[in-house]
Design brief:
The relative contact order is 0.10. Helix 4 (68-81) crosses helix 6 (96-117). This protein is mainly alpha-helical. It folds into 2 domains: 6-117, no CATH class; 125-176, no CATH class. The chain is built from 10 helices and no strands.
């Protein structure tokens, strides 16, 4: 089965955007900090998640992700498509277990790189408000309004969850999915 490689997709900007949600320029801005975070992680840990005790990390001859661009492309493709690990592995020429290992090593490296660049996702509304330049009072009022009234989430599973909330009388589900 053929594998997807960064060098093949980089020449097609629309396909690259479809795979990663980034333009090629945005991608190239992210690569150096991503690779630095990846190398820092690999100095301490092995690919299987155990602490590194002897040899340092090196790219071996039949490595499925030999370049920094391939590693970042692999991770961004996984995050964009959210495919099963077996599909992600097949797409990049490896088995499910190797895809699992790579994903669990590369994701912390991406988060560290985004923090370094100041582009890490905000984990709280107040942090997002500060990033966007809103005042603390504005952020607090948004948080208060969200806590007062839970949002009705429209998903394909919503009718099933409403039914479960009614049958089990689960107060947490009933608050999010009120009975009709």
């Amino acid at each position: 089965m053929a594998s997807v490689w960064f060098v093949d997709v980089q020449s097609r900007p629309t396909a690259f955007l479809d795979f990663t949600s980034l333009t090629l320029d945005e991608f190239h801005q992210l690569v150096p900090s991503f690779e630095a975070a990846f190398q820092a992680h690999m100095r301490e840990w092995r690919l299987d998640g155990k602490p590194r005790t002897a040899r340092r990390f090196s790219v071996y001859q039949n490595c499925p992700l030999p370049t920094p661009e391939d590693r970042l492309f692999f991770l961004l493709t996984s995050l964009k498509t959210y495919s099963l690990q077996v599909v992600q592995g097949r797409l990049f020429g490896m088995g499910q277990s190797k895809a699992h290992q790579w994903l669990h090593v590369l994701l912390p490296a991406l988060l560290a790189a985004l923090r370094t660049l100041g582009d890490a996702p905000a984990r709280a509304l107040t942090a997002l408000a500060q990033r966007l330049g809103a005042s603390e009072a504005d952020a607090a009022s948004v948080v208060d309004s969200l806590e007062e009234e839970p949002a009705l989430v429209a998903t394909p599973e919503a009718p099933l969850l409403c039914e479960l909330a009614r049958k089990k009388e689960n107060p947490s589900l009933t608050a999010v999915y009120p009975p009709a």
